[in-house]
Amino acid sequence: MTESTIAEAIASGEMPGRVWIYSNYHCNLACSYCLTESSPRSERRELTAEQMLTIAIEAKSLGFTGIGVTGGEPMLLPWLPETVAAMAAHLPVILLTNGTLLGGDRFERAAPLAHPDIAVQISLDSHQPDLNDMARGPDNFDKVVAVVPRLIVSGVRVRIATTTAGPLDSPTLDPLRALVRSLGVRDEDHIVRPIVRRGRADERDLGVVAVARNIPSELTIAADGAFWGSFGPTVRAGRLDTDLLLTRTILPLSIPASTLLATLRGLPEGADASLGIR
Ligand code: SF4
To answer: Ligand 1 pocket by C-beta < 6 Å: which residues?
Structure first.
């Protein structure tokens, strides 16, 4: 499959334009529904800064239109902010983080993220501190509510992601929507999404079942390979899930991109994602 075929597939909407990158799998938190069973003890499965920048450069030349960076907690990597800024010189980047490693003296680490083509997406699940912290860990609410306005004032575009076990349009989320608005985040930058039943959520019987047809077919790169969708390279009972593995080859990016497109073309009609997962 040629590079122009990939570019045409992205331009026509046949293949999604975003590439997701799992920078690492370890995390300072251990949330109850974590798709990757991340914790401070997790196997790191890190990509290097050079690999991440190469992915961004090659993604741009293949016609992709954006990059998402997730983990684990990406901000545990000392070089991450500068690398994301370098990637944003090629394509817009969304960086997913729990936001708790930017408090106090560490706030200056966020400086490279004040960039017109970077959005920082931080998790906040409830307007009630105890409910939020039950899922995400002690003091998580206070840390997030403190850092978000600081980031916005310093020029960082912040999105908030809420993960819920309930209906995505439930009125019980209205106080949280108001809180997020009061922190300075625009309504269109507040994303509400379901718990996906993979990883730790599956072990704890939480969330909606997601098979490939439900998961947006965004190319996703992790240290272990390339996957169908950002919910592909999950971890359960300490083992990487390989049901959505496309190929173990991650670079050159044309190889996993071609594999994803060939897989998409092998599907029957009507394979659109349906769970509203973002
Ligand atoms: S959900 Fe995110 S913040 Fe929570 S343990 Fe997993 S990677 Fe860390």
So the answer is: 27, 29-31, 34, 36, 38, 71-73, 98
